[in-house]
């Protein structure tokens, strides 16, 4: 029996130098255990750590070649026929005009920060633009304008977004096939193509959004490898600079800041719960992020406005939006010192406190309705028709013609006065007539009434009331002082207050601001002050005053408030506006330009658009199921694959949410292009979902599926490309391309260029 049993072979001798697995190295006594390695990693020291590419972006030489090829394709697509049309398109009306004002140093106010406009202006300036084209109307043919160079700026930034999408997904540890898919989706997305081919701000916005995401992902990878290394600081600082750039293009960049901010808070929360991280080390992490992600973006943003103010040093059509102190800093708007005291007989200019400080104004034109007497308005610019002489109305009406013979009498609270218009010799007057626009019972018309030599009637009389004075000038609380005293004028007979608000009069009053006498006047809109005063009875050495020149910080903060107020005021409906609920469905686009059976209509690539929307909702459903399964005790979140894709897709979903949902809170005009930053995140998310779904497939199968998706996207792009490039189109093709009834391509549904020309300036 023993003969049938095979003897066990002796064990082979151990080689003197056994081979080691490169992926799973053999543990040695010199290697730290897991806890020690994690502790060292948190401090930035990892013994035996293999070199890793900066930012964790693993890209082979073959991938670089492929990426260059895709970028060249994007160049061809975005620069094709860039010179056409050779006329003003959509909001080039505004942003081209702003470039003209930069070149001429004429101050203007826009609801967007200056960076993107400065880049476009720089291109125009370098190529010899003199700023003399007015960009007045959509369809106006360009003359002596380097518009191709100016369009090239957003086009190049649109091209640069393509490789950024690839590198971002590679940094997020997606496969090369997935990253190529994202880059090609961005390349052939019709909406992004259309928006990047014109003098508009959204392409720079999307580029800096993509750049910020890439830098942040690179920093997160560095943070896992070696905190506080040179590369760690580099990626973190670049993230901060990019955050400053994105918010300096449009305030929509605040949503990008929020995306990085939430991720930062999550990182710090994990560090706070890690007992191996000391309080001192946590403080270093906190301060580094605060320095680079708060201070650096803020300084960059402010620096853009410093450049903005330095260039726009002259007076322009934006003066009226700013305070008098601000205007005083502009070339051509400076004011000579003026008398501090105001007395009977003084010739004064009176400004409104609340509504951008317009001047109380009258001109020799009458109201077409009501009393048909001379108009009184609020006018934003200096003019001789802003001058009024203060007269005493406490006498019996026989005011002496030679008022200069009277003793000097300062204007004090409770004094009854008249204001006589210096140019037309008519008195500021109010009576029981309704104003031409604010036709309500508690508002009375204000006019200028009288003839030369006529002393007027009691409807010309106003009671002077001081509301407040300057703390630095005690006299301003006891009598009227130039620039220092805020006052109200109460009508002696009716008790209403001189009042103005942001209501414009029609064309017959040159669209100047309405002035009324309001019985229920809001305090802020019934406050006035004297800007200049002159009186021959005052000695030459009498006290004089002038505006305090504000510093950069004061001007910066004031402009931010004006931008916010102006942006919030864009509430009128528009022919092509849309609400956020319609954007993920691509319900309608925006008509940019129409001429000679050619049209530019902003519309996305339906396949890319709807696939990205499906990916967003798929993530919501799957994440909800995972949460429910976790409640039932399932261990899904202990699976490294689930954790990887949950982190990846969760970050992209966070970016999409923060760039999309805040628009539901806005009552202002909104358009499809406001969705583009969120669309970028949605496209990356769709590719992340693709990476997950195809993770178990063979590479060849995965590549074939990606190829099919790309082919469909390219077909969609080609089919709708006449709308992006303004190519000739037949009516039949136009009708066939209307896959949704709400896609209102203008010329095939009989819209006219006149409708498009009413397009107003949009935000964000």
TrEMBL record:
It catalyses: a di-trans,poly-cis-dolichyl beta-D-mannosyl phosphate + L-seryl-[protein] = 3-O-(alpha-D-mannosyl)-L-seryl-[protein] + a di-trans,poly-cis-dolichyl phosphate + H(+); a di-trans,poly-cis-dolichyl beta-D-mannosyl phosphate + L-threonyl-[protein] = 3-O-(alpha-D-mannosyl)-L-threonyl-[protein] + a di-trans,poly-cis-dolichyl phosphate + H(+). It is found in: Endoplasmic reticulum membrane. Pathway: Protein modification; protein glycosylation. Gene3D superfamilies: 2.80.10.50. SUPFAM superfamilies: MIR domain. It comes from the Eukaryota. It is a multi-pass membrane protein. It is an enzyme of class 2 (transferase). Residues 339-393, 408-467, 477-533 form the MIR domain. InterPro entries: ArnT-like_N (IPR003342), MIR_dom_sf (IPR036300), MIR_motif (IPR016093), PMT-like (IPR027005), PMT_4TMC (IPR032421). Residues 1-33 are annotated as: Disordered. Its EC number is 2.4.1.109. The chain crosses the membrane at residues 107-128, 148-169, 176-193, 199-220, 232-248, 254-274, 286-307, 607-628, 648-666, 672-693, 705-727. Belongs to the glycosyltransferase 39 family. This is Dolichyl-phosphate-mannose--protein mannosyltransferase.
